[in-house]
Amino acid sequence: MAKEPAFTCAKCAASFTKWSGRCESCGAWNSIEESQPLSAAGPAKKTLGGKRGTTIKLTDLATQEAEPPRTMSGVDELDRVLGGGLVPASALLVGGDPGIGKSTLLLQAAARFARNGLRVIYISGEESAAQVQMRARRLGLTESPVMLASETNLRDILTTLETEKPDLAIIDSIQTMWADNVESAPGSVSQVRASAHELTTFAKRKGIAVVMVGHVTKEGAIAGPRVVEHMVDTVLYFEGERGHQFRILRSVKNRFGPADEIGVFEMTGKGLAEVKNPSALFLSERGKPAPGSVVFAGIEGSRPVLCEFQALVAPSPHSQPRRTVVGWDGGRLAMILAVLEARCGVPFTGLDVYLNVAGGLRVSEPAADLAVAAALISAREDAALPPDCVVFGEISLSGALRPVSQTENRLKEAQKLGFTQAITPSQKKRSGDAGLTLRSMEDLPAFVEQIFGER
Ligand code: TYD
Ligand code: MG
Question: Left if phi > 0, otherwise alpha if psi is -120 to 50, otherwise beta: which for 96?
């Protein structure tokens, strides 16, 4: 049997079977430490063979466990992302870049839940109580019965939570927490992991919902929220572009509801405000139909969302032309460029290509393929698409257009926002057209020919 790795690098979390002065994986000095069992639930030193445990109660697949009662915050954009309100005895992680608005969001949420009757404790390891109170004043939340503390010692925090018995505890942030049974400094992988593990098991044992804030660190995954994603029930990310006032709360994992659900917020001087109609918001900065601009009718979670893809194509001064993407996958862009060249005879050699999703939204649906292709050709040919037209469809490597899910919902949303036409893949089974004129196509060459004419 392989030997258990008993040493871990505090910088990169690589495991080793023996100690050394320098981590072979990331090259850091003096970062290797012996992994200690954190608590009763930590890795067992001995084998489990000797002592008998207690017998677990077994059930069958049919008997339904009672659904835990949920609490709504009253903020639709938040409740939907949570999968229909807050679940008791659950552990949540809210990740995001520093300064994106996590503390603001959670203080507002804490105030809402407190007003709806939950006992809420907000613990900041980053700011003093006075600083949090100042934020609460600015947000107009001072009347809400939220209990507050500034503390980083996890042992003291757990003891306090045990006596106070709140329904919801917010820990801002997991990187500032210090568990005294782990040697390394706060913010290191072992500390973050140990603290999150303690808080998660505590949440289950005591029936408290625990929300942990996790900063996405510069190095990416290391010691950031990724390290704890697998432990918690729900992982939400708070995203947005620094320069934009939109913020998107996205569920990437949810044991109590659908993942990939989004809530859209707008930053204001008085904190985050819900955006009830995100399509209108994402299209609000759109001017007259211009070459390179295409409206994509997308689905985010359970909701249709329209957004604008913008492309710019220009002769490149570089021997290696640029491919720059914001809000979409760079690999997928390369694929579509290749399909355009190979199947439609539209080359992008010697041309710089820039692609951007307006408003700071990040789209990951393959259904956006056709919108991307349309934006690219439109920019390259300097020819705008018909006005009042939305586009969606997946492109395969053969150049065929594949139908996508929820066609009717996409069309309905487009119709609601005043669009009159849609360019879509041909469908065997016809769904409703929601009153739009549909231009359906079999493949990408047909699309290029019908929309941009003979070349
Ligand atoms: P903050 O919540 O502190 O971000 P994080 O906890 O993710 O690091 O917000 C960062 C700054 O932005 C803070 O100075 C307050 C400001 N802000 C607003 O003015 N209005 C808003 O709606 C939000 C979300 C933030
Ligand atoms: Mg903060």
Answer: left
272 close to ligand 1 (CB < 6 Angstrom): yes
Q: In the block, which residue shows the tokens 């003096």?
A: 30
If you take atom 9 of ligand 1, which residue's CA is the nearest one? 101
Is the Cβ atom of 214 under 6 angstroms away from ligand 1? Answer: no
- Determine the distance separating the centroid of ligand 2 and the alpha carbon of 101, expressed in angstroms: 7
Structure tokens belonging to residue 113: 């839940």
**Pocket-testing residue among 104, 139, 242, ligand 1, by greatest number of atoms within 8 A of Cβ:** 104
User: How many Cβ atoms from other residues are within 10 Å of residue 263's Cβ?
Assistant: 27
Q: Given the CA of residue 96, which atom of ligand 1 is nearest to it?
A: 7
- Ligand 1 atom at minimum distance from 135 CA: 15
For residue 119, the CA-to-ligand 2 centroid distance in Å is 21
Beta pairing class for 394-395 and 401-402: antiparallel
Helix (H, G, I), strand (E, B) or coil at 120: strand
Residue from 127, 163, 176, 162 nearest 148 by CA = 127
Cα separation, 399 vs 233, in Å, equals 40
**Which ligand 1 atom sits nearest the alpha carbon of residue 267?**
22
What does each C-alpha distance from 351 to 8, 322, 377 come to in angstroms? 47, 8, 12
Least confident segment among 49-53, 268-272, 346-350? 49-53
Instruction: Give the model confidence (pLDDT) of 108-162 as tens digits.
Output: 999 999 999 999 999 999 999 999 999 999 999 999 999 999 999 999 999 999 9
Closest by alpha carbon to 176, among 217, 126, 220, 127? Answer: 126
263 CB less than 6 Å from ligand 1?
Answer: no
Among 80-89, 237-246, 294-303, 414-423, the range scoring the smallest mean pLDDT is 237-246
